[in-house]
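worker-03 picked up job from queue 'complexes'. Input manifest follows; two sequence lines, order preserved.
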Amino acid sequence: EVQLVESGGGLVQPGRSLRLSCTASGFTFGDYTLSWFRQPPGKDLEWVGFIRAKGYGGTPEYAASVKGRFTISRDDSTSLGYLQMDSLKIEDTAVYYCGRGAGGSDYWGQGTLVTVSS
Amino acid sequence: DVVMTQSPLSLPVTLGQPASISCSCSQSLVHSDGNTYLNWFQQRPGQSPRRLIHKVSNRDSGVPDRFSGSGSGTDFTLIISRVEAEDVGVYYCMQGTHRPFTFGQGTRLEIK
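worker-03 finished. Artifact:
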């Protein structure tokens, strides 16, 4: 069974950093692009970025709103994906989801809440 | 960025009746590889999004056949042939052709 589980969310002050993890199971993690999305409370979904599978270069791409502040990485040996979030802003408050694949992820995790507040 | 405009934003439906959601895009979603990466997602209350349809009309595994997708170019439609109570939630179209990938504003389906 394909599963994705996010972890690492919590309360953080503006300007600080946080790293989210995405633990994958039930499929060959290294064969797939890993995407990140977010959803502010009561609002709509937003694509954050993705990291390609190594077979497609292993390179990341980002939404303009997070480029230069967020970094997506992966460790195929442990089936883990990461979202490093630096210089956090209040408007980064959201539930963060990881998803399998790009262009329309077919499996999503349950999400982890990140609250940026002083 | 590609702007995705859904209508209606609120959709009250009687059980057993059909429902239709439209998604209009600001530019063609035909990719250079010939595919059209238009997806539909369902988000039930308190849950994460679930993909229902990919590449316009392909139903995902386990999705009931009362859900269908159609369209081309810039205009797409999700149809639920007979609404059931478990269909309550918010429906989003999402394009995966042009980066940044973008979502519609969501259509909230409720039972009348």
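worker-03 released lock.
Chain B touches chain A at residues 37, 39, 41, 43, 47-51, 54, 60, 92, 94, 96-97, 99-106 (CB under 8 Å).
Chain B has no helices and eleven strands.
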